[in-house]
Structure formats: structure tokens, C-alpha cells
Specification:
The chain has about 325 residues and is an alpha/beta fold. It is built from twelve helices and eight strands. The strands form three sheets. The chain has a four-stranded parallel β-sheet, sandwiched between helices. It has a two-stranded antiparallel sheet with strand order 1-2. The protein has a two-stranded antiparallel sheet with strand order 6-7. α3 (about 75-85) crosses α11 (about 280-295) and α4 packs parallel to α8 (about 195-220). It is globular, with a radius of gyration of 19 Å.
């Protein structure tokens, strides 16, 4: 059986009375124009269907969950419709499970997909990795997202003045009290002091490789997209002797050379006026579907695809 949602946004995903539930606002979307329906496991979208002929697992951050979009406008749902049509399956026989959460980290994406794939084997996994600044840690068995924001004692006091719960809700919607908020802000400061671009890049890349090798070992077809995919060709990382060997381990047949953050894909905006809109999601889904069908049609070998970095050298 699939596992219940286990992230740091439980207030939104479980609702005031537990899932399933429906909300009008989520994450960065306060427009009130869209509806977010969460299933019995606390994830946005449809329920797990044991009888499905084809099962897709999707996980990412706000782009993945479809911030500011109706469910039918999200790229995950559009991908489901496209694949059903192109492989001649009834739409009702394709089961899409979307494990995304707003402001997710690479840590969240990998641990969630590995946990869920360990419980139920899907036919396709699509992981959409976010910015490399985000990370995740556990305290008293509970996950907490963290970003590198160095906050002085004065700025922490400013953040915790009256109205603190509303002010911090975008990043920490499940806060229970001011003491917890103060602790998390202090931990953000500690993380910010240790963080640099190389550690963020390496942490994200390691998460991708962990998911890649898990899927390869379990013979699960997968695709990986990364908001910052162009960093793989940035000399700061591509010519770093400690990082280059990790880049070379990527399976380039299953790595998407595009993301929703790319200018040529981000054609419109969602209801929050920031996240990608319906046209962008449709185009991204088309690119994902094309790459998946290309890989399966050519029956790729179990060996890794050749790295474009290696080919160019």
C-alpha cells in the first residue's frame, strides 16, 4: 500500500479534519481562484487504483503539484492524458499519483519516490527537482524544509512580531507556536552559514543519482528533470574535479535537457501570477511524453546513456 504524505506542510495536505479534503489556497497561491483536492493519503489528485493498467508516479515542488492551476491543467495530468492516447489506453486505466509538495527539496523528492516505489512499483516515475538551495532535515522524526537565509537576531525578531504566523505561512504552514518558528528560523541561519553553491549542487546531484540507481535496480522506467539543469554545463561545476565524476554518472537518456523554468517553456503564468501556467504545463508534458516514448521505442540498453559532457570533450 502507498504511504501517507510525510512532509512539512501537513496542515495543507491533511486539512483541519484529515484527508480527503479540498482547499482554495495552497503554498504561494492565495488567489482563491483554484481548487486543491487532496486524496485519502494527503496528496493532490486521484486515489490509488489497484486495477490500473499503467501507473505514473510524479514528484516535485510547486511546479509539480500545480500551484495556481486546476488539476486538469497540471503537467502531470496532461502527461497522463497524452500517454493514454499515444499508447492506446483508456484514460480510466492510467493511474497518476502526484506526490509533490510546495517548496519541496531534492531530499523530499528522492526519499518520497523511493519510499512509494518500494511500496508499489509504477510503470513510470517522473522526478522534477527544484532549486539546489533547498534541503531537508528531520527533528523528532518529523521532516522540516530549510533554505540558506542568514537571519540576524534583529531580523528574526522582525519576522516574529505580531502577524508572524501569516508572514511565515508560505514556507512553514504547519507551525504550531512561536517557539517552533523561532527554532526553525535559527536553523535556517545555521544552514545559511554552511551553504555554498557547490554543496547545494552536489547535494541535489547526489539525490538524483540515488533515485536513478534505485530505479535501475528495480527496473522502473524513469525520467529526471531539474529546474537548474543548465548548471550541469556551467564551468564552475562541470570543471570541478570533485563534481565532474558525479555528473558523468547521470543517465543522459533519461535526463530531461529542459525544465519548466526555461524561457522557451514558461509561456504563461498560473493564477498566482508567478508559477508556470496551463500552456507551459502542456508543453512540458509534451516534452516529457516524447522523451519517454523515444526511450521505450528504442528499447534502451541497461547501460547508462553517454554523457554529452564526455561526448563534447
Amino acid at each position: 500500500m502507498l504511504l501517507r504524505y510525510n512532509g512539512d506542510r501537513s496542515t495543507e495536505h491533511f486539512g483541519p479534519n484529515g484527508p480527503p479534503h479540498t482547499a482554495q489556497r495552497y503554498g504561494a497561491d492565495n488567489s482563491g481562484k483554484k481548487t486543491y483536492a487532496f486524496n485519502s493519503l494527503g496528496y493532490r489528485g486521484e486515489e490509488f487504483d489497484r486495477a490500473a493498467e499503467f501507473r505514473i508516479f510524479v514528484c516535485g515542488d510547486g511546479d509539480g503539484i500545480g500551484t495556481g492551476l486546476d488539476w486538469e491543467e497540471t503537467w502531470g495530468y496532461r502527461l497522463k492524458c497524452m500517454l493514454a492516447r499515444r499508447v492506446d489506453l483508456d484514460l480510466s486505466s492510467v493511474n497518476l499519483l502526484n506526490f509533490s509538495q510546495s517548496f519541496a527539496s531534492a531530499d523530499y523528492v528522492t526519499r518520497t519516490l523511493i519510499s512509494q516505489c518500494g511500496a508499489v512499483k509504477p510503470d513510470l516515475v517522473v522526478a522534477h527537482y527544484p532549486e539546489s538551495t533547498r534541503a531537508e532535515y528531520f527533528t523528532v522524526g518529523k521532516p522540516q524544509g530549510v533554505i540558506p537565509v542568514p537571519l540576524s537576531k534583529f531580523r528574526r525578531r522582525w519576522a516574529l512580531r505580531p502577524g508572524w504566523r501569516r508572514r511565515l505561512a508560505k514556507w512553514m504552514p504547519s507551525l504550531r507556536n512561536k517557539k517552533e518558528a523561532r527554532r526553525i528560523l535559527e536553523e535556517w541561519e545555521h544552514y545559511g552559514k554552511l551553504f555554498n553553491a557547490e554543496t547545494g549542487f552536489t547535494r541535489t546531484l547526489t539525490s538524483m543519482l540515488l533515485l536513478q540507481e534505485f530505479c535501475r535496480a528495480r527496473r522502473i522506467e524513469y525520467l529526471i528533470s531539474w529546474t537548474e539543469h543548465r548548471k550541469l554545463f556551467d564551468a564552475r561545476f562541470a570543471k570541478n574535479n570533485a563534481i565532474t565524476p558525479l555528473i558523468a554518472l547521470l543517465d543522459w537518456e533519461r535526463f530531461c535537457p529542459f525544465s519548466l523554468a526555461d524561457g522557451e517553456l514558461k509561456l504563461d503564468f498560473a493564477a498566482d501570477a508567478d508559477y508556470p501556467g496551463p500552456r507551459s504545463s502542456k508543453l512540458f508534458a509534451e516534452r516529457i511524453a516524447d522523451l519517454y516514448l523515444k526511450n521505450t521505442a528504442h528499447a534502451p540498453s541497461p547501460d547508462r546513456g553517454a554523457s554529452p559532457l564526455r561526448a563534447a570533450s
